Protein: D-xylose reductase [NAD(P)H]
Organism: Pichia sorbitophila
Amino acid sequence: MSIKLNSGYDMPLVGYGCWKVNKETCADTIYNAIKIGYRLFDAAQDYGNCKEIGQGINRALDEGLVARDELFVTSKLWNSYHDPKNVEKALDKVLSDMQLEYLDLFLIHFPIAFKYVPIEEKYPPGFYCGDGDKIHYEDVPLLDTWKAMEKLTKTSKVKSIGISNFTGALILDLLRGAEIKPAVLQIEHHPYLQQPELIEYVQSQGIAVTAYSSFGPQSFLEMQNAKALGTPTLFEHNTIKEISQKYKKTPAQVLLRWATQRNVAIIPKSNNLDRLLQNLNVNDFDLTKEDFNEIAKLDRNLRFNNPWTWDKIPIFV
């Protein structure tokens, strides 16, 4: 199953998220994911594993397991490269690391412009801005960055462009000046953070939605995220467990189907082959209206990935 993007391309509804996939196992994990049927891979400069992702993809390509045009590879522009003169430079680094000729989708990772850090000084730079652990910013309007993204679509390096972690107000403003609409908005999305109005508006504009952290706090436990540590896991929530038992599915499959049934793409991560298969096969059952109503009651507007915790950056305030 796939979503037809406003750029004319098809994006798989279920993909594999590469955040926190460690370098030691990454290439093999990507290769095995392709082998069992995954076709969408969601990467980012900031994840620091682009080389290994590329190794797994290219191994599969070299062995003829899949053709390049059967894969959908996403990456993201990190905050340090928002200045228009650095956008294509950042893309070229991604393509070089992955040993790919093009990306299927390139997203602005966050609506935040950090001070530029030369690639040869530190890559990926993370929060480093050339001054220890102190974050510095650049006065680069989002529309300027977006215009540079639009130019990339005129090359052979990028098929579609999009945004991530943008709020409705930022999207409204961006659309007023954009020549090319974002093809995709990627957001944190799970029963504790449902954002129904944002999703309704974005989809009404012909922009596809991809959910990350579909399992809620689960993605953030290993990071010792205080909110995640203090929140019951969705896998153990009675509502999710009861629905999973009704359909003889795992709680993870219920959480993923809750998204895909509303045409929201998903990018779950797992290093376990059995769970990889389970996560891929989530579209063979349908939740009822009553199921959706019960899950709707779980919404706490609880966000785990919030730049306010980085440096009091108020994008979600």
